[in-house]
Amino acid sequence: MSTPSLPLLGPSLYLAALIGSLPGHAPPDAGGPLSTQADALAGAWAANEYVLSSGDRHAVRGRIVFTDSEWQVLFFVMENDEPRRGSGEGGRYTFDGETLTFEHLHHLSYGRTMAGLPASPLAMTARDGEGPFEPTGVEIDGDALTLRFPSGNSMSFTRSSACCP
Fold first, then answer.
1. How many CB atoms are located within 10 Å of the residue 122 CB?
2. Residue spans of alpha helices (H) in 6-141
3. Mean pLDDT calculated for residue range 115-133
4. Which residues neighbour 129 within 8 Å (Cβ) at sequence distance 6 or greater?
5. What is the pLDDT of residues 47-79, one digit of tens each?
6. What gap in Å lies between CA 105 and CA 91, rounded to an integer?
7. Which entry of 34, 87, 114, 138 is 20 to 30 Å from 44 by CA?
8. What gap in Å lies between CA 153 and CA 9, rounded to an integer?
9. Radius of gyration over every alpha carbon of the chain, rounded to an integer in angstroms
C-alpha cells in the first residue's frame, strides 16, 4: 500500500497484511457473546510505555478501549513531558487468548522526530467496509497488558476500568 505506516504502535501496524478472522472464532461483526479471552481484554487500559525494537523507550499517555468486538485507541508519545506524536485509531478485533488481530477502520496520526522514530506527516483514513488486519501478540497479567506488534515494537498498559457489566 502507499498509505504511510503508523508511527506509534509500530511501523507495520497500519500496513499489516490481510489475514482474515482467527480460526474457530466468529467474524468481528457476528455480535456473539464475549469469549473468556475477550472478557479478560474488555475495558479501558491506560498507556504506559512504548518500547521500540531498537531499544528506545518512550513514555505514553492515553487509553485503548475494548468492547466485545471493537477497539479504539487515543494516545500520545511523550518527550520531556510534552506530546511529540499522537494517534487515534479503531475498528474491530478478534482475540484467541494469545493473538489479538486488529482490523483497522479508522486512523488519524501525526508525529515529530523522536529517538528511533522518524517524522510522520498527518495521516487520516476512514473505512466503511473491511480494513487491513494486524496480528499482535498479547500478554495479560492481572491489570497489566502488553501488546507485541509484528514490527518488534511493544506497548504496555495498565487496566483503568473494567467493561460492560
1. 9
2. 36-41
3. 96
4. none
5. 999 999 999 999 999 999 999 899 999 999 999
6. 5
7. 114
8. 7
9. 15
pLDDT digits over 17-31, tens only?
Answer: 222 333 333 344 444
DSSP for residue 114: B
Residue 12 and residue 91: Cα distance in Å, rounded? 16
Q: At residue 86, what are phi and psi to the nearest 5 degrees?
A: -150, 155
Q: Return phi, psi of residue 44, to 5°.
A: -110, 140
d(CA 74, CA 115): 21
Q: Which three cell numbers stand for residue 24?
A: 474457530
Indicate the pTM of the whole model.
0.77
**Strand, helix or coil for residue 90:** strand
Report the C-alpha gap between 108 and 123 in whole angstroms: 6
Amino acid at 20: G
- Which of these, 92, 83, 96, 86, lies nearest to 140 by C-alpha position? 96
* Set of cell numbers at residue 18: 490481510
Would you tell me how many other CB atoms lie within 10 Å of the CB of residue 114? 18
